[in-house]
Write a structure and sequence with these properties.
The protein is an alpha/beta fold. It folds into 2 domains: about 230 residues, 3-Deoxy-D-manno-octulosonic-acid transferase, N-terminal domain (Rossmann fold); about 200 residues, Rossmann fold, CATH 3.40.50. It is built from 20 helices and 14 strands. The strands form 2 sheets. A 7-stranded parallel beta sheet has the order 3-2-1-4-5-6-7, with helices on both faces. It has a 7-stranded parallel beta sheet with strand order 10-11-9-8-12-13-14, sandwiched between helices. Strand 4, helix 7 and strand 5 form a beta-alpha-beta unit. The longest helix is centred in the middle third of the chain and has 18 residues. The radius of gyration is 23 Å and the shape is globular.
């Protein structure tokens, strides 16, 4: 990037800071986490962090690297957790610096911290904020998870000799088009990365087209996820006690709950208006013969989704009100964070949120790892390869729209033999694609030029 281009970009980012502060205030009204430690976003840290950011005196410097992991949101933080577990095995003395961009990511990331680790917000991409961040913490290496590329952050690391890598890298067609449109800005940033490890060959091709040098295709870290055993067991116990099949609308995004309700109500209205045998079978299959569970993707929408469902005349029982078991209601609402293993364990099959509106879909690997088959809509461009492989393996089914999704999922859970076969395929699918976590962790160690303690 030329000096003039960098100066123009940096000036725009500086001018945009008031807009960022206003956005944080708005988001903080529904998610208070956004109001936490706001100065960190501009590279200003409390003295306590300055005092622990230096070398760890307990072990020699070359045995205690400070590894900076950047995981912008919830999904990336969960992927970072898988990589971190392998890194801690290979480098038992590592210290962790964890950064995020969203409140849900930061809340999830707090669970990963050990004594001596640090967690702050990602610095806003101005030269000043980036410089203060890097000079304060002096990481041994920076690992960006999946998609987060910021020009000044890349340039700042290069100026200080800090290797900055992209792990579990992915880039969809829409994002590539944007990178090519702004190539004067994006290409030097991608080219400035010390290494890129892509999820798929298709991601690797797109990343190369954006300007990156791809050093490996390791697969998706999320295939190495291990579901929480206690949550899974609790969910299955509640599923067994439900008395009817449980269908989950998983990680639903804005607009999808309305699509789902419209399809349910259309079937009920059809049965009431034309009480034929086909119509009666339709309402039974689509409503009364299953227990519905809805888990919105974003916590700030929990209350709105409940209001939407109750406004349609359906009763709701919220996870936050469950004690020994889910309450009796037309719809169960998953209004908690960090419990997807419980929800997948509770469900016989799931509709994949984000895929019934043009939003790119959500990650279906966690569902498969829990043995929960997925019915996906047409929009899976954020996880295109995983969705394609899952459908080819029989671990997922693709449909054209929400109405077809409900009908397909309902038929599936009422066919015990097919359901069992699909659940088995889901588990086999995840087992067949594991290994990215160890490959990525070994690559980080090699970048650090430190000996890995494999098997310790």
């Amino acid at each position: 990037m030329s000096r003039l281009a960098r100066a123009l970009y940096s000036a725009l980012m500086v001018c945009a800071q008031p807009l960022l502060r206003a956005k944080l205030r708005r988001r903080g009204e529904t998610e208070p986490g956004y109001l936490e430690a706001v100065p960190e976003r501009f590279g200003h840290y409390p003295p306590a962090l300055d005092s622990i950011a230096g070398p760890n005196d307990a072990v020699p410097d070359d045995e205690a690297p400070l590894i900076w992991l950047h995981a912008v949101s919830l999904g990336e933080t969960r992927a970072a957790a898988i990589l971190l577990a392998e890194l801690r095995t290979l480098l038992p003395h590592l210290r962790l610096l964890l950064t995020h961009g969203t409140a849900t990511g930061r809340a999830e990331g707090a669970k990963l911290l050990r004594p001596g680790d640090m967690q702050v917000w990602q610095p806003w991409d101005t030269p000043g904020a980036v410089g203060r961040f890097l000079d304060t913490f002096r990481p041994s290496i920076g690992v960006l998870m999946e998609t987060e590329i910021w020009p000044n952050l890349v340039a700042g690391c290069r100026q200080r000799g800090i290797p900055l890598v992209l792990a579990n890298g992915r880039l969809n067609d829409k994002s590539l088009a944007g990178a090519l449109r702004w190539s004067w800005l994006a290409r030097p940033a991608y080219a400035g990365l010390a290494a890129v490890w892509a999820q798929t060959e298709a991601d690797a091709d797109r990343l190369r087209a954006a300007g990156a040098r791809v050093d490996g295709v390791f697969g998706n870290l999320k295939f190495d996820t291990v579901p929480d055993a206690a949550q899974l067991a609790q969910g299955r116990a509640w599923r067994d006690a439900a008395g009817r099949p449980v269908l989950l609308l998983a990680s639903s995004r804005e607009g999808e709950e309305a699509l789902w309700l419209d399809a349910l109500m259309a079937n009920r209205s059809k049965a009431l208006d034309t009480p034929s045998l086909d119509a009666i079978e339709s309402i039974a299959n689509h409503h009364d013969a299953v227990q519905w569970l809805v888990v919105p993707r974003h916590p700030q929408r929990f209350a709105d989704v409940r209001q939407l469902i109750e406004g349609a005349g359906l009763t709701v029982s919220c996870r936050s009100d469950w004690a020994a078991s889910p309450g009796a209601a037309d719809v169960w609402l998953g209004d908690s964070l960090g419990e997807m293993a419980l929800y997948y364990g509770l469900s016989h099959a799931a509709l994949l949120g984000g895929s019934f509106e043009p939003l790119g879909g959500q990650n279906l690997i966690e569902a498969a790892a829990c043995g929960c088959p997925v019915v996906t809509g047409p929009h899976t461009f954020n996880f295109a390869e995983a969705a394609r492989l899952a459908c080819e393996a029989g671990a997922a089914l693709r449909v054209a729209d929400m109405a077809e999704g409900i009908a397909t999922a309902t038929r599936l859970v009422h066919d015990p033999d097919r359901l069992q076969a699909t659940q088995d395929e889901a588990l086999a699918f995840t087992r067949a694609h594991r290994g990215a976590a160890l490959s990525s962790a070994m690559a980080v160690v090699q970048m650090l030029r430190l000996p890995a303690q494999v098997g310790d």
